[in-house]
Amino acid sequence: MTLTIPTIENASQQADVKMTQAQRRLGCDLRRDAICMGTHLLVEMWNSPFSKLADANIIGEVLGRAGKESNGNGNGKEPKTEVRVHQFNPYGVSGQASGPFAHILIHTWPEKDYAAVDIFARDREDAYLALEQLKKDLNPEYVHVLELRRGQLLDMEDT
Q1: Which pTM does this prediction carry?
Q2: Which CATH architecture does the domain made up of 37-155 adopt?
Q3: How far is residue 25 from each of residues 46, 73, 108, 128, measured CA to CA in Å?
């Protein structure tokens, strides 16, 4: 699987900013004097097949695969990812996958061909690995992603 992570400004090229390898992996921006706690993706998926979005068993399998992608450690001994799903009547699913490095939540509205997804991961790479697996499994025609680096919201204006 080829992973494409959107580019961000390379803070290490800025004057007087030094970043460790771990900080680069987290996607932190030290110029803001903030702490990066991980990457949170707010995802909207449109026009996925009704049959996938309406079935809790399918959503559970999809979450399991996405959780495995984002919680792997590269040594073949992936930690366990816990998956829970709830089937709504007449249709719709809410589910979550939780592991040591990432948490994924999904809420589906099959009648509107829509799924709302939150992915919170220790770093950008893990977050986008989960997203790519979800896109592969749910086949949305359109995906919109808003990326937040947790721990850096203090720099934003209060609303």
Answers
A1: 0.73
A2: 4-Layer Sandwich (3.60)
A3: 30, 14, 31, 12
